[in-house]
Amino acid sequence: MQKDLEVRTVEVVAHIDINTEDENFEPEYIGMVVEQSHQGCGLVLVRYSEDYEKIDKGQEVVVKVGRLHPMKAKVRWRKNLDEDLFKLGLEFLE
């Protein structure tokens, strides 16, 4: 049972690196995947600091969703849910 829980946990987490110029994937942000398709995903993030304001509509990022390899994506929309949570819509570019 524990193994199944670990697999599901990995699949619902996305890591985001806003530095698309560097070939090394060094994620600075983490979000929970709430929607996913072949074209993109929706994430909910907790705003831990003002650094989270750096992620905005139109920005290109590198994202690693679950067990997928890191890939370039574009932030299509951002919606503040409350003062601590916000939601992102990412479109995969690869």
From TrEMBL:
It comes from the Bacteria. One of its GO terms (molecular function) is cyclic-di-GMP binding. Residues 6-93 form the PilZ domain. InterPro entries: PilZ_domain (IPR009875). This is PilZ domain-containing protein. It comes from Acanthopleuribacter pedis.
